[in-house]
Amino acid sequence: MASGSSTGARRGQGGGDGAGAAAARGEAKQPSAGRAACLGAVALGGALALTAAMAGPAAASQGQGAQTRYVALGDSYTSGPAIPTQVDANCERSNHNYPSLVAAADHVADFTDVSCGGATTAEMWKPQGTNGPQLDALDHGTTLVTLQIGGNDIGFGSIIAACAGLTATNPLGSPCKDHFGAGGIDQLTLNVLKAAPKVSDVLRAIHQRSPRARVVVVGYPDLLPDDGVPCTSPVVPFAAGDFPYLRDTEKKLNAMLRVEALVHGDEYVDTYTPTVGHDMCTAPGTRWIEPLVPAAPAGPAHPNALGEQAMAEAVLARVAGHGRGHRV
């Protein structure tokens, strides 16, 4: 991307999605993939083994990332809005987001972070404020790419705002589910299906620009209780029956991302399973996802510093193994 901060051989660019109540951004047309993604019966389990601590992978990978040229693409879950230290105001990017932690722990030779808050798949091809098209960060020398995208394509911000606003109409029911399924077809499921070919186009473009790169698609962490038990409150203002609905919508999004990674011969990192039990309903200090009124530095309904670290550990558990820094 156009903007960024530099430390030695490392360059940082990118940012985070908007606040939980932010309106969903318009989706620009992407190059057609010419097919619809099959969500099918995708297994949502299979958690990746986490490293015991960040120091473990770092010690194990001393010198092994010396030839790795790493580019991080994505939205605010990648960029880390409000997490200290913010290095790009336009994109709400933290130097303690998971790509920065991965790059430091794996001692990569070159690091470029072009994730940006509010990014959709459209921002892979077009500027976003002072941030240039994210795909422009790639070249034939890139050897590792992480991609976390799709949340804003399905309308993350508008979903949060709509569901929170409907709670008062039926706090013990499922007014959000009823709203998005009013036409007989669940609109959020349809949004996930519509986002699939856009993600496919992004992955195809990554391989065209960086044919040697190992590409890792990163899923989204657990936002709400995995068991569906509600915790309705002023800071988590969803109706009791909408907790499992919103949980299932996120799982559908992650399932789609897993399928697209497999279709393109890429890898998928599950960040949902490792973050179960640390959702926005849990207490400060335990939670890795902040509620709509954050108690720790983070965007509303976004990972805090502990959440970014957890995602970094999940990514490191994948990329620090065989095939680091090149396509396998």
Describe the structure.
The protein is of the alpha/beta class and about 325 residues long. Helix content is about 30%, strand content about 10%. The strands form two sheets. A seven-stranded mixed sheet has the order 1-2-6-3-7-8-9, sandwiched between helices. The chain has a two-stranded antiparallel ribbon with strand order 4-5. Strand 4 and strand 5 form a beta hairpin. It is globular and about 55 Å long. The N terminus is likely disordered.
Low-confidence stretches: 1-63
Please tally the β strands and state the result: 9
- Sketch the major β-sheet: 7 strands, mixed
Alpha-beta classification: alpha/beta
| Tally of contiguous helical segments | 9
Written as H for each helix and E for each strand, in order along the chain, the element string is: EEHEHEEHEEHHHEHEHH
Mean pLDDT: 85
The percentage of residues in β strands lies in 5-15%
Strand order across the largest sheet: 1-2-6-3-7-8-9
Summarize the amount of helix as a percent range: 25-40%
Shape: globular
- What's the alpha carbon Rg, rounded to whole Å? 18 Å
Key descriptive features of the protein:
alpha/beta; 9 strands; 328 residues; two-stranded antiparallel ribbon; 11% strand
How would the blueprint of this fold be written?
Layout: E1 5-7, E2 10-13, H1 55-60, E3 69-74, H2 76-79, E4 86-88, E5 93-94, H3 98-106, E6 110-114, E7 144-148, H4 156-166, H5 175-180, H6 187-209, E8 214-218, H7 242-263, E9 267-269, H8 272-275, H9 305-319
Parallel strand pairs: 2-6, 3-6, 3-7, 7-8, 8-9
Antiparallel strand pairs: 1-2, 4-5
Helix pairs in contact: 3-9, 6-7
